[in-house]
């Protein structure tokens, strides 16, 4: 990401520091405004990239068997690989694969549990 910004500020780098910072500030203001306008037109509840990731996780749920271990606890096993299993706690938003905790989006194991409810 820093390389993308560096390429934008090539001409500004040759200027005095105050002028360079002013050009960067103006560029960022214009960029933020264009992003605000673009997102204001969006009417869905889930952003497009997040929706794509959730759709991918939804497709992967077909390979997992869900077993309820408690009120909100589940054990999820792979259909073909016997050793591969994960524990999921829906109330704490935790899965033993740790993807849900790291990204904030449910992994395929958690998604399989959510579909099973």
Please give a structural write-up:
The chain has about 120 residues and is of the alpha+beta class. It has six helices and four strands. It has helices at about 1-10, 10-15, 15-40, 50-60, 100-105, 110-115, and strands spanning about 65-70, 75-80, 85-90, 95. The chain has a four-stranded antiparallel beta sheet with strand order 1-2-3-4. A hairpin with a 4-residue loop joins strand 1 and strand 2 (about 75-80). Helix 4 packs across helix 6 (about 110-115). The model has no long low-confidence stretch (mean pLDDT about 90).
Layout of strands and helices, then pairs:
Blueprint: H1 2-8, H2 10-13, H3 17-40, H4 48-60, E1 64-68, E2 73-78, E3 85-89, E4 94-95, H5 99-103, H6 108-116
Antiparallel strand pairs: 1-2, 2-3, 3-4
Question: What's a quick, concise take on this entry?
Answer:
With 117 residues, the protein is an alpha+beta fold.
Structural class estimated from helices and strands: alpha+beta
Rough shape?
elongated
Q: Into which percentage range does the β-strand content fall? A: 15-25%
Low-confidence stretches: none
Question: Which short descriptors sum up this protein?
Answer:
alpha+beta; 117 residues; elongated; four-stranded antiparallel β-sheet
């Amino acid at each position: 990401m820093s390389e993308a910004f560096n390429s934008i500020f090539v001409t500004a780098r040759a200027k005095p520091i105050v002028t360079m910072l002013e050009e960067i500030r103006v560029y960022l203001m214009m960029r933020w405004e264009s992003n605000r306008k673009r997102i204001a037109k969006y009417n869905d509840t889930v952003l497009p990239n997040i929706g794509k990731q959730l759709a991918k996780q939804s497709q992967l749920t077909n390979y997992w068997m869900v077993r309820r271990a408690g009120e909100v606890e589940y054990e999820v096993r792979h259909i073909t690989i016997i050793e591969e299993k994960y524990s999921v706690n829906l109330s704490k938003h935790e899965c033993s694969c740790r993807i849900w905790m790291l990204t904030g989006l449910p992994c395929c194991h958690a998604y399989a549990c959510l579909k099973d409810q």
